[in-house]
Amino acid sequence: MEKILNYINGELVPPASGQWLDNYNPAIGKVYSQIPDSDSKDIENAVLAAKNAFPAWSTMPLGERSNILLKIAEGVDREFESLAKAESDDNGKPVKLAKAVDIPRASANMRFFATAILHFESQAHQTDQQAINYTTRSPLGVVGCISPWNLPLYLFTWKIAPALAAGCTVVAKPSELTPMTAYLFSKICKEAGLPAGVLNIVHGLGSKAGQAIIEHPEVVAISFTGGTTTGKTIAATAAPMFKKLSLELGGKNPNIIFSDCDFDEAVSTSVISSFSNQGEICLCGSRILVERSIYDRFVEAFITKVKKLVVGDPADDNTRVGALVSEGHMNKVLSYIELAKEEGGKVMTGGERVIVKGRCEDGYFVAPTVILGLDQQCRTNQEEIFGPVVTIMPFDKEGEVIEFANSTAYGLSATIWTENLKRAHRVAHQLKSGIVWVNCWLLRDLRTPFGGMKQSGVGREGGWEALRFFTEQKNICIKL
Ligand code: TXE
To answer: What's the rounded mean pLDDT across residues 152-181?
Structure first.
């Protein structure tokens, strides 16, 4: 069976302990490779390598650093097919989706930050006729990047690309559930000539390898994407050590449909924003709020389309909904559907595990599920399910829907459907969400700040924000 290796100091190496973890393909419910069960010894080696690599990497002329990162992007493009397959084998998502979203966006992340750093600026301020202040920005040092399982290579590169571009050296840990693309990526980095130790990828459990990164005194900043509970644990460890923190956490995002929307477009895109990647995207709209005058019509049109979504083998081009990432996660999602019923919800479609015939008969598939009849405050509408489950609720007034939308502990994203420009601006401004999409979903401009309000996170990633995060400022004041 294939063994995934750590990437430390430019070499592909087994874990120091010699211990391995099973890696499942969730679509077939079977182990298909093994990953290092790394511990603090591996992290120690990775941090040392990163520390040694820092002086040369952080002072390398920007053009040279940029060229190496661009070569890595080219490597991602070259390995497009194998990366898309690996992304699907690890995560259960349709290969078609990995080809359309995950891998192109991973390549774009590398390319964007490789070139953004060439245009990064700092400031100067003249204090009347007395002094000139100029501000420098220097790479922080060794940083930790920890990423989740839902968009494995996409979110992995989203973190490491700005860190590397800014001149930091990195100890990164992908999710133990989806390690394969990061492993293939480490081979791409070697081929691209990334100097040894600049990027180190250590595989293993969050509570062991991940925690060792957070606790390491030489790791000066942490960029993390994952669950809100894990984010709290990380903050509790890192904050007293005064580490810089960027936390991208969960969401319970409202999708608001006003009666003056482009109806067909709102229905079609809502199906995608609800069930894309099996609903395992922190930005999925899981609470659909529909103005009462079009509520019945919307529910009918939406459910008709949802019923047509093909749940099946991720390798099949017709599949729209693949497997959930693990058996544990599938059971969690199914338990939320049971909870919704206990809370008085009516399951209109889905609501159960799907057995896909053929090679996927032991896979972890759940039918796209639509639930009506719940109130805003019930647990189903307050807690992140992170699966193919949405609720639909009616509203009467604009003020009421804003209150509903803002009623959870999360504040990651929101979507508004209306053709009324004034209303779009007015409502968008009142939503407590880090990003608001109007008449679209998941449109991405890498220059914009990305992140959540409330318990959806701390800090902003993307564009200059990410490069600022991975650099520290110094102001030099010279008397004239
Ligand atoms: O996330 P975790 P999981 C949400 C979603 C999901 C829940 C749990 O609700 O059901 O999180 O998913 C590493 N120190 N999101 O269990 O545990 C871990 O190894 C350092 C939302 O996958 O937060 C992995 O690499 N690291 C999210 C990463 O953290 C630790 C996407 C994320 O794992 C650690 C995924 C520790 N103590 C899940 N414990 C989004 N917003 O995109 C774990 N890790």
So the answer is: 98
